[in-house]
Specification:
elongated; two-stranded antiparallel sheet; 2% strand; mainly alpha; 168 residues; 434 Repressor (Amino-terminal Domain)
């Protein structure tokens, strides 16, 4: 059998595509041994073993042969590799901040969610030029955020507070 080009597998994190796991799962679902899959692909059995044990990463041409041998499309093979939506949600909810945030956001309406998202974007993304000019001219408190000004989620000038009817 022809020698297959091998790419050394890199250390993968939890969110990376899990090629090895997906290939093993699809092979077992198809009732194939490593040897049978290798024969269908025209590669040595050891190559399939190395892929499944994360000792090698399949090349694009090998992915195409794997998909064909497993009777799936390459997109289906790659889709099978990624974490499921449920797994991603479970992983996100292990973060205490996200879990607490979900508790509150589930009580908001669409308009409130949109407002919260806009405020988070304002905090994270660099300000646009026009917004900087308005802030410098006293039209906003964004310039105070980095210098210990008020909370970026709340108005930080007394005129803003009065306008918001939070103080008389």
């Amino acid at each position: 059998m022809p020698a297959m080009p091998m790419v050394e597998a890199e250390e993968s994190s939890r969110s990376d595509i899990q090629v090895a796991k997906a290939i093993r799962s699809l092979r077992q679902r198809s009732g194939l041994s490593q040897r049978q899959l290798a024969l269908r692909m025209g590669v040595p059995r050891t190559y399939v073993s190395k892929i499944e044990n994360e000792k090698a990463t399949p090349t694009l041409s090998s992915l195409a042969r794997l998909a064909s041998a497993l009777e799936v499309t390459v997109p289906d093979l790659l889709h099978e590799c990624g974490p499921s939506r449920e797994d991603e949600i479970t992983e996100l909810l292990t973060d205490p901040f996200v879990a607490e945030l979900v508790e509150f956001t589930s009580k908001l309406n669409t308009m409130q969610l949109s407002s919260v998202l806009a405020q988070v974007r304002d905090i994270v993304l660099p300000p646009r030029r026009g917004a900087l000019r308005r802030a410098a001219a006293g039209g906003g408190c964004r310039a105070d955020w980095g210098q210990g000004g008020g909370s970026p989620l709340l108005p930080c000038h007394s005129t803003d507070l009065a306008r918001e009817k939070r103080i008389p």
